[in-house]
Amino acid sequence: MTPWQRLHTRRLINPEFKAKVALVALREDKTLAELCQQFELHPTQITEWKKQLLSSAAGVFGASSKGQEPVDLVPLHTKIGQQALEIDFLERALTKAGLLSAGK
Fold first, then answer.
1. Is the entire prediction scored with pTM above 0.70?
2. Which has more confidence, 64 or 15?
């Protein structure tokens, strides 16, 4: 490893830090140059993170339906119909046996 490589190792930045920088950049309280100095980043990097945040922000509020499979309602409707028949049958049987009043 050369001395230059030891001094210039690549920095690993976690997503929380990227989000924090992008949000500060969106507020526009400080200039891009001030943000670069504060976070020790290149202006292009801050601009890129800001663009990524803006492009994916709609997904936070459910605009994106990726990963959700459509629900098959046929079995659910079948089950509801079956339960309705069972309730009607039991209601009639209990009424005949005198255990349930006719007026409910």
1. no
2. 15
Which is it for the CA torsion 26, 30, 33, 34, positive or negative?
Answer: negative
Q: Which long-range contacts (CB under 8 A, 24 or more apart) does 24-28 make?
A: 25/49, 25/50, 26/50, 26/53, 26/54
DSSP for 60-104, written as a single string: HTT---TTPPPP--HHHHHHHHHHHHHHHHHHHHHHHHTSS-TT-
Tell me the pLDDT tens digit for each residue of 55-95. 888 777 775 556 667 889 999 999 999 999 999 999 999 99
In which element (H, E) is residue 15 found?
A: helix 15-27
